[in-house]
Amino acid sequence: MLEVYFETKEETMTFCDRIVQYGLDVELNWKTSDKWGNQIKIQENRTADEQLLNTAKAMADVFVKHRQNTWILETIKGVYYYKDEEEVQRILELARCILAEEDNVEVTIPTEIDLRKTLLDSFQSNIHSGEIVHFDSVVNFRLQTYREELIEIIGMAIDEFKREEDYQSFVQSLREYVAKKKSKFQVVHVIQGQHFKFYKSSGKPFSKMEIKMLIQQEPLYIVGLDEAELNITPLLAMAPEQIIIYGDYPSEPKTLTVINVFQEKAVFEPFSRFPFPNYLRNH
C-alpha cells in the first residue's frame, strides 16, 4: 500500500482521476485532515513497480495541470525579470505552445531536453513502496533538474517573443511608409511561390526590368529593405490601391506579411480564381 498527500482538493481529484486511468483495478481511500491535507491510500492488484510507475505518472499529471503555469510565471518574473503583465502573459502563452509542440510556433525543443521524462523520473525516484509521499515535498525539493530545463524552455519562449516584437516593429515601419506613399497602380495581382510573381490589372506580368526600375526609384533602405528583396519590396515600390494574392497557402509567411502591412488593401484568393490563365501559361 502507498500513502500520498496533496494540499488541495482539486489536485487530489486530478490524481485520483489519472491513477484510475493508469491502473484500472486500483482501489483508493480518500481522507482529509487539517494537519495532513488530503490523504490517498492506494491498493493496487499489480506489482510494486507498476504501482509506483502509475503513481508517478499521475503525480506528474497533477503537476502539469495545477503547478506548471505558476512555475512558468515565477520564472518569467523572478529569473528573467519581466514585469509588464501583457508581456508576461504572451511569454507564458508562447512557453505553453512550445511545451505542447504546437505547429504555430516555429521553435524546436533540443533533443536532449525531455521535460515529461524528467518530470516522471523525478517523481518515480522519490516514491518508494511502503512510504508516505507528500506531493508538495517532491515539488518543492526534488524537481531541480526539471526546473533547470523549464528555465531553458522559457528562455526560448522569450527569444521567440523578442522576434515577434522585432517583426511587429518592422511591420509598423512598413505601414507608415505605405501610408505616406502615393499609389502608382490601382490593382496588382500576386501569385504565391518561392518568389512572388506580379501581374498588372490587364493580366500582363511585370518584367524583371520594370520591377528593378520601380525599386531603384524608392529609398527603401530607410525601412530596412534593399533591392535584393523581391517579394515585399516591389509591392512597397508599386504602392497599389489593392493587392490580390492568389495561392493555396493563406498562412504562408510572405503572404501574411503583405496582408499585415497593407491591411485592408490586401486580400487572399484561391489560386483557381486567378483571372488571367492565358498570361499565366505564357509566363
Structure notes:
With 283 residues, the chain is α/β, with parallel strands linked by helices. The protein folds into 2 domains: 2-174, no CATH class; 181-279, Nucleotidyltransferase, domain 5, CATH 3.30.420. The chain has helices at residues 9-22, 48-66, 68-78, 85-99, 115-125, 135-141, 144-180, 208-216, 232-238, 253-262, 277-282; strands at residues 2-6, 26-33, 37-44, 132-134, 187-191, 197-199, 242-247, 266-270. Strands 2-3-1-4 form a 4-stranded mixed beta sheet. A 4-stranded mixed beta sheet has the order 6-5-7-8, with helices on one face. Helix 1 (9-22) packs across helix 2 (48-66) and helix 8 crosses helix 9 (232-238). The longest helix has 37 residues, at 144-180. InterPro entries: Spore_YtxC. It comes from Sediminibacillus albus. This is Putative sporulation protein YtxC. It holds the Pfam family YtxC.
What is shown here, in short?
With 283 residues, the chain is α/β, with parallel strands linked by helices. It is 52% helix and 15% strand. It is built from 11 helices and 8 strands.
What features would you highlight for this structure?
Nucleotidyltransferase, domain 5, single chain, four-stranded mixed sheet, Putative sporulation protein YtxC, 52% helix, alpha/beta, 2 domains, 283 residues, Spore_YtxC
